[in-house]
């Protein structure tokens, strides 16, 4: 089950990527069969998810492809996006593209996708704050503590495999929850408790691994279902993103 949780945990770091990349077909197939596809994907992708930073960095990502940690790679309405953010997304996106069998030799194209992803995320966060949305810090802490309980001594290693410190993951969790609020409030994407329970029960039926109680993985399951619904409403979401871009001052610096 830890493999499943880690896969869902990783999904929170690239929630918008599926709408901004060229992986539409593969991702839509995932949407059509959420429970069975997810279980099969866990078996195929778990090994890469448990150590993506080592596998991708060592095999596919060179230093020339990354930015300086404190370098400003783009600005969105005056807000800076730093190299540290770029470097955390680039290996994950490149690995996702590679896993779908696509060519990853065009690093300039990958760079554009990463910048597009980061800019889109920043636009969503800014618009969410303009809409008066905010994240309850207690909710973030509860999710972090839930992961700590599940992983125990492996928690630090799980974060390290993603190239993250706890503070970095906490920040990404906050942003992910804020984007969820935005998708629910502005776009109209909402996951019900019944949908979460149905997905959880299907997951229990289709895996031989021990599954923790629903309350321990509810947030991760909800995140996964939210991502799938985003894929289903991709056209509407992309139209909103384009609207945000047209009204924003954006500068790419790499």
Could you please describe the fold and organization of this structure?
This protein has a 3-stranded antiparallel β-sheet with strand order 2-1-3. It is globular and about 45 Å long. The protein is mainly alpha-helical and 254 residues long. The chain has helices spanning 2-11, 17-20, 24-32, 34-50, 52-59, 83-99, 107-130, 137-151, 155-161, 166-187, 193-205, 214-232, 234-246, and strands at residues 72-76, 79-82, 250-252. Helix 1 (2-11) crosses helix 12 (214-232).
Short note summarizing the structure:
The protein has 254 residues and is mainly alpha-helical.
Q: Biggest sheet, open or closed, and with what strands and sense?
A: 3 strands, antiparallel
- Large-scale geometry: globular
Structural class: mainly alpha
Q: Overall mean pLDDT score?
A: 77
The amount of helix comes to over 70%
What is the count of DSSP helices, taking H or I runs of 4+ residues? 13
The helix/strand series, from N terminus to C terminus, equals: HHHHHEEHHHHHHHHE
Strand adjacency order, main sheet? 2-1-3
The N- and C-terminal alpha carbons lie at a distance of 40 Å
| Uncertain spans | 1-59
Rg calc: 17 Å
Q: How many β-strand stretches?
A: 3
Range of strand content: under 5%
Search tags:
254 residues, 3 strands, three-stranded antiparallel β-sheet, mainly alpha, disordered N terminus
């Amino acid at each position: 089950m830890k493999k499943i949780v880690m896969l869902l945990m990783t999904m929170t770091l690239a929630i918008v990527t599926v709408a901004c990349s060229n992986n539409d077909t593969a991702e839509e197939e995932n949407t059509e069969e959420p429970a069975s596809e997810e279980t099969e994907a866990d078996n195929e992708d778990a090994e890469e998810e448990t150590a993506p930073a080592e596998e991708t960095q060592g095999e596919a990502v060179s230093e020339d492809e990354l930015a300086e940690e404190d370098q400003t790679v783009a600005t969105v309405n005056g807000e800076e996006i730093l190299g540290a953010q770029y470097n955390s997304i680039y290996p994950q996106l490149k690995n996702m593209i590679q896993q779908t069998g696509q060519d990853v030799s065009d690093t300039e194209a990958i760079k554009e996708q990463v910048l597009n992803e980061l800019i889109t995320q920043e636009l969503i966060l800014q618009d969410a704050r303009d809409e008066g949305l905010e994240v309850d810090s207690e909710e973030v802490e509860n999710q972090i503590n839930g992961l700590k309980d599940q992983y125990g001594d492996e928690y630090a290693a799980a974060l390290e495999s993603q190239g993250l410190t706890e503070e970095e993951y906490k920040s990404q969790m906050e942003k992910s929850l804020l984007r969820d609020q935005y998708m629910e409030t502005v776009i109209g994407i909402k996951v019900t408790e019944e949908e979460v329970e149905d997905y959880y029960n299907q997951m229990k039926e289709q895996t031989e691994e021990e599954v923790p109680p629903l309350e321990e993985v509810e947030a991760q399951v909800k995140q996964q279902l939210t991502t799938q619904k985003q894929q289903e409403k991709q056209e509407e979401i992309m139209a909103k993103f384009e609207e945000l871009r047209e009204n924003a001052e954006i500068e790419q610096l790499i």
